[in-house]
Amino acid sequence: MLKLTPNLRLLSKHDATNFTKFESVRFRRRKPISLGTAKSKLFKIPPRPSQSEEEKLELQRLHNNYRTQMKSLRYYFIVNHSAEFAEASEDPEESRRVFEEDLKRCTSINEKWNEKQREIREKAISKQQENDIIAALEKVELEKKKIKEMKENIEEIVRKEKEQSKTFITAENIDAAIEQALANPVDYNFALISSGEKILGRDNIPGRDKNKASMNQ
Amino acid sequence: MPYKYIGRTTDFKGKSLWEIVGNLKNFGVGRMVVRSRFERYPEKSYMKILKVETLPNPEKPSIDDMRFVKVWVESTFRGKTFPEPIVIERTSYKTDFRLIPKDEEQEYCKSPVFDCTKIVPKTMEFPPLLKELLIRNAKAKGNSLEEEIKLEIFYNKQSLNTSYKIAKDGEKPTVEIVSGLGKPVSPRLYEGLK
């Protein structure tokens, strides 16, 4: 989407005829003020903006000229507009009737335009709604799929656990397991020698059976 | 040793209102203070103190909170006195107030004499398209345009008393008002433009 200024964006690329197609952008790509001044900028004193006197006078002159002209034009239109109705008739009732007729005409033009805009707006809204519904349905489908996958994963975990549970030590076979453990002590300690060779066991002496773990733990 | 100020500069000049009224007898009721920000206008702006109320100390007093005071004033802004008294409370902390000594009050209040040497034109050119339209309309109605149509300039009524006057018939205006760039104040600014 076209971003015109930091806080204004154009909604439709093809229709920029009026300002109803603009949207103000509420986020800004800046640090929030609540973060405070950066440490490195804490003692920085920005120079005061300065404007030369002649530049100031020149801009003031241009600005004043512009405002005076606009004010005069506005005043001219007001005076002439009311003069039209005053000229229409001597009778104030008649003038009023002419004025109201003109107002009616203007209102009808305005209403016509509003009607046109309403149609465009409603069309856009209904389209947006359809898109929203489609997007929502898609989201629901995605969510369902996600839940299904999750359930499958859980089932898989449970199945594996069940399989493993056959080898668990229970109250029935605890004595046999203890016997087994005492009969086969294992020492995981080892030492490395400079050639990178592994000497297993805490009390192992090099030259003996290397792969046999020490019995003395 | 002279003071050496560091940090950002400010446009304010003077003291906060409490610094002034807190040092005066009866909190300075009847005395005159001015905001230095308002001294840039040719017409005079000043305030006469009518009533002063101190404010309770804030819960967590800091150097900025302790400067507030509530003051009722009869305010004159750009030569016009407000009919009702004005309460200064939220702006009382601004270090922009100045006390006028009693013997200078009368002199300060005197409104300056404005010399309306600036003569502004009575009419100006219409914008080109509008002018063309007006000529066509007039011709369609059968009106003859003997003299060129001009837009009558609408001026601010208040400024007419103080700053400038409208040119009468035959009088030559000292300033020109045109819809284009016009005559620049200093042509130097437009040098090198194509």
Automatic annotation (TrEMBL), chain A:
UniProt feature coiled coil, ranges: 133-167
Gene Ontology terms: cellular component: mitochondrial small ribosomal subunit
Protein name according to UniProt: Small ribosomal subunit protein mS26
Family: Belongs to the mitochondrion-specific ribosomal protein mS26 family.
InterPro entries reported for this sequence: Ribosomal_mS26
Pfam families attached to this UniProt entry: MRP-S26 (PF14943)
Top-level lineage group: Eukaryota
Localization (cell): Mitochondrion
Keywords annotated in UniProt: Coiled coil, Mitochondrion, Ribonucleoprotein, Ribosomal protein, Transit peptide
Taxonomic source organism: Psylliodes chrysocephalus
UniProtKB/TrEMBL annotation, chain B:
Domain of life per record: Eukaryota
Protein name stated in the entry: 28S ribosomal protein S34, mitochondrial
Residues in the signal sequence: none
GO cellular component terms given for this protein: mitochondrion
GO molecular function: structural constituent of ribosome
